[in-house]
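To: structure desk
From: M.T.
Subject: fold request, one chain
Message: Could you run this one when you get a chance? Sequence is below, nothing fancy, just the single chain.
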Amino acid sequence: MDDLKGLNLSNLNLGDLMKQAQSMQGRVQQMQEELARKTITADAGAGMVQATVNGRMELVKLKIDKSKIDLNDTEMLEDVVVAAVAAAQQRAGEMLKLEMQKAASAMGLPPGLLP
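Reply: Done. Structure tokens follow.
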């Protein structure tokens, strides 16, 4: 409570705060929709498999180079698919984090406040 002693609540306009919060929520939602349309691609196994995910971390495309696979070694192919998807998701996560940091900064918010 000691932290609140110097706080002047008479200047606090709850209506304005609510409007700002709604506006910010709308901007965040719009940014999330824009990011969901972006895609990130990563490969594994020296280009054997390419995985593409969207900004929602959903796998939207998987490409396998038939000339680089051994049909008798499906276990390796499975591992390479998992690695390619994981790499694409990691890159997409990094992109999302960077875009959220940019948005928070543009809105005058402290870093890490937006999800």
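Reply (cont.): The radius of gyration is 22 Å. Let me know if you need anything else for the meeting.
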